[in-house]
Each structure stands twice: as C-alpha cells, then as structure tokens.
Design brief:
The complex is a heterodimer. Chain A is mainly alpha-helical. Chain A has one domain. In chain A, 74% of the residues lie in helices and 0% in strands. Chain A has 9 helices and no strands. Chain A has helices spanning 15-62, 73-103, 107-112, 118-146, 158-177, 184-200, 212-218, 222-235, 241-268. In chain A, helix 2 runs antiparallel to helix 4 (118-146) and helix 5 packs antiparallel against helix 8 (222-235). Chain B is α/β, with parallel strands linked by helices. In chain B, 36% of the residues lie in helices and 15% in strands. Chain B is built from 10 helices and 8 strands. In chain B, strand 3, helix 6 and strand 4 form a beta-alpha-beta unit. In chain B, helix 3 packs across helix 4 and helix 3 runs parallel beside helix 5. The radius of gyration of chain B is 24 Å and the shape is globular. Classes of the chains: A mainly alpha, B alpha/beta. At the A-B interface, helix 1 and helix 3 of A face helix 2 and helix 3 of B.
Amino acid sequence: MTSALALALAPVPGTWNLSVRAFRCWLVTYRRTWRSSIWSSVFGPLFYLGSMGYGLGSLVDKNGTAALGGVPYVVFVAPAVLATQSMTTGMNNAAFPVFGAIHWNRIYIAARATMLRPADIYRGHLLFIALRIAMNSACFVVIMAAFGLIKSVWAVALLPAAVLLGIAFATPVAAWSVTLKTMTPMNYLFRFGSVPMFLFSGTFYPLSVYPHVIADVVEWSPLYQGVVILRDLVLGAPSPDLVWRAAYLILLGVAGLALAGRRIAGLLLV
Amino acid sequence: MNGIDFDLYQGEAFGFLGPNGAGKSSTMRMLGCVSPPTQGDLTILGGDPVRDGAAIRARLGVVPQEDTLDNELTVRENLLVYGRYFGLKRKLIAERTDQLLDFVQLTERADDQVDQLSGGMKRRLTIARSLINDPDILILDEPTTGLDPRARHVVWDRLFRLKQRGVTLILTTHYMDEAEQLCDRLVVMDHAAIVAEGTPRELIARYSTPEVIELRFTPGEQEEAFKKIKSLLEERSRASSAPDTMADLAIGRALGGYGGGGAGGAGPPCGKAVPPGDSRADCRPHTSLRDRRGRAPHPRP
C-alpha cells in the first residue's frame, strides 16, 4: 500500500491492426469447421449448375435463346448461381455466427474484455466473412472456367464483384442479427428474404418476362443488381449502368456497416 | 451506482463483498472499461476509462462472472486467440501458455476441447487466459461462485499465489470466507452503495457478534419457539454478570443441549443451564448452526 496504481499506458495500435487480430481469431475457429463448409461452398453451386444449367438448359436451348442474349442457358444461369452463392454466404455468415458470437460461443463478449474495441471486433469478423465470400466465389469462378462458361476477359472482375454483392448482404444482416434475443426470426429471413429473392431476381430468366409493375419491384432487389453485374461481366458487355448498380450495393454495404457498428458498440459497452 | 468511492493500491487484493444485485458486477464492468461511468471520476492505471479504454484494458486481466471460453476450441487455442487479441507473438503465447497451464494445473488437458472440462477447470482456464497479457491488475467477478468446495480451494490457492507475486487483485464475492482468505481490504456493498470498508479483520471486529446461532424450526412451530427464545433472551440480559457467550450457551443448552459439543467445538460446561423440567427446555430446533466469528483467522499457507 504505497503508491496509487499509475503506470504509463502504452499507445493503442490502429484499428486496422486490431481488426486483423479479431480476424485471426475467426481463422482459428475456421480450422475446426472448414471441412464441413466444403459441401456448401463447392458442391451446392455445382449441383445447381448441373440441374438448372445443363438439365433444364437442354430444354431451354431447343427453343432458341434470343431472349437470353443468344447464349446457351447454362452461360446465362451460371453468373446467377455465383451471385446467389455470394448472397447466401454473406447472409449465413452474418446471421448465425454474429448471433452466436453474442449468445453462444460469446466471441464478441470475450473479446471486449481485451484491448479490442467493439468496432475492431466487428470489423475483424467482417474481414472473415469477406474472406469466406471470396473463397466460395473463387471456387465457383474456377468451376465456371473449367466448364468453359467464361466468355470474356471482363471475368477478372467477377471475384471482386461477387465479394461486393456478398458484403452488401452481410453487413445489413449483421446489423439485424445483433438485435435478436432468440434465433427464431432467422428462419424468417431465409424463408421470406433470401429464398424468394433467389427465385425471382432474374436468376433463371430475364426481367423481360415480368409485367412492368413487377419488374420495377424486382429491380430493387440487391440480388438482381448483382446478377446483372456478374452476367454482364461473363458475357463481356458491361453497360455503363454497372456503375449505378455497384453504387447501390456499396451503399447497402456501408449503411449496414455503420448501423451494425453502432449497435454492436451499444451492446458491448453497457 | 450511488456514488461509490475507493482507492486501490499496487499489489493489494481488494474485494467487493455483497449479495446479488448489490452493484458489484456493474462496478467490475466499469473497472474493466466496458461500461462507462455515468457520473464522477474513475481513473484506472492513471487513465480515463472512456478515452483510454483500450490502452487500460491492455493492462488488465478479466475473469468475468460467466465464462466466455470458446467451448469448441481446445484449451490451448483459447489462450492462443486471447494472446492474439493483445498482439502477442505466437512464440511468446506458446511459452506463456505452457507456464500458465502449469500454474492452473491444466497441462494434461491442453489439447482437449473446453467442452469436456469440469466447471472448476473452466474457471481455472479463464484465470489462465486472463493472465496471458501479464496484466498489472486482475479483475475477478465471483471467481468461485458455483464451484464445489474443493475446486474453490484450488482457485483460492492459485489466486493467493498470484497475490504473493505482486499482482493486484480486484474481486467480488458473496462469501465472507473468500473475502477473508484473499482480500487485504474490502468494501461491503448493498443497494449499489458502499456500506462498510476496511480490512477483513477490522470488519469482523466492528460488525460481527462473537457468535451467531441460527435455528430452524419445523414450519408451524416457529411462532411458539420464538416466544420461548425471547423469554430466554430476556433472562440472558438480566444475567449481566455472565459474559454474553456463556449466556448464549445456556440458551443453546435449553434448546436441546446444543451448547455441549456441537459442530462449533465444545465450550466449557459452564453458564446457567435451564433446569430440567422448565417448560422452555422442550423447545427443540429442527436444525441449528453455530458460527463463531470471534476465533483467530485460519493460518494462511
């Protein structure tokens, strides 16, 4: 009992450095689960490509593909499968793992006692989610190339575009997941959110099939915007509209990032 | 919190004793810099917890009330993840992990999943994890709540060794014996305020009666027994010449020969026993517990 505790505090590293520390925690966790993730990452999209692209496609191609831009159906549908995979990877990783990091394995709660700040904890997790989206997308781009479905050099932009699409879904979903007390509402997200979006966002047929009123609604679907971007890149004819579509996705991603960041800080610093 | 006020010195073990809901955990969260103080001044390691939160937390070790271990990872991986949060190099983490697991006696379980550990082991692992950054202050929120007596003693032993090494400990507890074992100084909290402060010895001397007798009667008989005991107590206050303890022993004896060698140790056969045949003598408690607070503290290891 001599002197009151007062030691020099070391300066805190920047947020990038701290976020990477949180990110590496998720890598340790992923070492345990990567095998089971192969199924959803590789085989799932491959099956869609087989059944829709080649199976259903064989019937579609017999009737002429002028409405699809004159390409075989499988070429038309493959970028949509890629887009859907980005969306589901982004959503899945932002739903259960974020909820779990608060309520189950409590990774966020454990980390907040350390020098990481809520923003670092969250950004680190997002880095990992982005990595998962990139991994899954890269797998599928390689599969597309192997099947000869890539027709243009613009395809080099497929991967960043797919990651952008995934993050545009991940951050708003994460902002929502942190508010949940039970996991029941998660099912609604998939039942009424991702499944209808997957079926109706111009994934299996062009938007021209719809009456105007419905087409106008579908255009607001972020998945639709992603599908169009990726499809344009595969077919080698990106229109100037790509900028607006990308801007829409970036806006969603940034808004989700800001909202989730605020909510997580509110949750962890009570 | 209702304006609590205390200073903490390097190398001391400081305790917060109080019931559930007394505000101990809220205080711990503020000290752990995860909960901003709404009013007043809080300075930790010379820093402001709001402005320098991350820098302060870098020098703290925290054992939360509920374990936040990752059950799906191994014991070693839990320490690896935590070490990384503090920016430690893998090699240093590996070295410290070996030392810390040895310290908390978990070396043999290093590669087991946390899932498989007992409650006491998880608690020890949480303590090991909180030490990975070699903290200046270790904050423990109810370190032994929910542990069996043996596991508690193991945790106490480890904490006592940390104290010997000069680590500053801040802990909360429900248990007076835990506070007595570990704390140099403590505050008693209730209703979000400090109600007493001092060393365990001072607090015992100031607030504890030498002996406490707890009697439990069969439901339905309590009212009757209460009257009988009340009359015995009046008799006790009249017998002013006898020391209180003796008079209490007399009462105990009246309540079924309790004073003659219960679990609390036999007292000398003196005091004014109620003569046999007195109607009050058949007042028999269901259970009784005597706690002598006036004894010398247990010798420490």
